[in-house]
Design a protein that fits this description.
227 residues; 5 strands; alpha/beta; Rossmann fold; globular
C-alpha cells in the first residue's frame, strides 16, 4: 500500500509494547511519524534504547526530551521505592505523577511546530494497571483543553488525540502489532529491566505482558535476567 506523506503525526514512544504498536498503526494509516520519548529519570532506562530501535524500524524521526521527574519523586519508577512484585489494590506505586499530562504537553508543542493535527498515544483502559491518566475521560478532557490552549486550535486546525489501543486487551494489542509488523523483540516493558533490557519477570508490567502473549497464542520474545 502506498503511503501519503501529507499527514504528519506525533507519536509518544516509550519503547514498550503498546507504544511500538501505536507507532506501527499510525505509519500504516499513512502518517509521516515523529516519535517523542521522555527521559524522565526512569528506573527502566533501557526503554529509551528500545525506543530508538523501534523508531528506526518504522522510519520515524525520534526526539528524546530530558526532564528529570526524580526531582519530584513519588513513584517507584522515579524514587527510592521498591517495584512491587505482587498485584495490589488501587493506583499502584509505579504510577508517575502527571507523566502522561507532561508527555502530551510536549507532544502538543511539537505538533504545533510541525503543523501536525494528530497525536498518537498508547494508553489502555483494559490492561492498564489502574493508572488514572490512561482513562478515556482524561484523554477527552486533554484534547478539549489542547484545542482551547493552542494557536492551531484557535484558528480552526483541530487537534485529535488518537488512542487506538484504549479498549483493547493486551492480547488484542499484540495481535494488532504482529499484523502491522512490530518486532516485539525490540521492546522493553519491564519496570526494572537491566541495562541490557533484560526483564525481571515478576513486576506488574512483566506479568501483564506475559499473560497477553499467552492469551494471544504468540511467543513472547522478552529476554529475562539470568536469575
Amino acid at each position: 500500500m502506498s503511503k501519503s506523506t501529507d499527514k504528519v503525526a506525533v507519536v509518544l514512544l516509550s519503547g514498550g509494547l503498546d507504544s511500538a504498536t501505536v507507532l506501527a498503526m499510525a505509519v500504516s494509516q499513512g502518517f509521516r511519524c515523529y516519535a517523542l520519548s521522555l527521559d524522565y529519570g526512569q528506573r527502566h532506562r533501557s526503554e529509551l534504547i528500545a525506543a530508538e530501535q523501534v523508531a528506526r524500524a518504522h522510519s520515524a524521526e525520534l526526539k528524546t526530551i530530558e526532564l528529570d521527574l526524580r526531582a519530584f519523586g513519588g513513584s517507584a519508577l522515579t524514587d527510592d521505592i521498591d517495584v512491587p512484585e505482587e498485584e495490589g489494590e488501587g493506583i499502584p506505586v509505579t504510577y508517575v505523577p502527571a507523566r502522561n499530562t507532561i508527555m502530551l504537553s510536549l507532544a502538543l508543542a511539537w505538533a504545533e511546530v510541525l503543523g501536525a493535527d494528530d497525536i498518537f498515544i498508547g494508553v489502555n483502559a483494559v490492561d492498564y494497571s489502574g493508572y488514572p491518566d490512561c482513562r478515556p475521560e482524561f484523554i477527552n478532557a486533554y484534547e478539549e483543553m489542547a484545542n482551547l490552549a493552542t494557536k492551531a486550535g484557535v484558528v480552526g486546525n483541530r487537534l485529535i488525540i488518537h488512542t487506538p489501543l484504549i479498549d483493547l486487551s493486551k492480547a488484542d494489542i499484540i495481535r494488532q502489532g504482529i499484523a502491522h509488523g512490530v518486532d516485539y523483540g525490540l521492546t522493553v516493558s519491564c519496570y526494572q529491566a537491566d541495562e541490557a533490557g533484560r526483564a525481571c519477570g515478576v513486576c506488574d508490567s512483566c506479568r501483564i505482558r506475559a499473560a497477553g502473549f499467552e492469551a494471544a497464542g504468540e511467543k513472547d520474545p522478552t529476554r529475562y535476567k539470568p536469575d
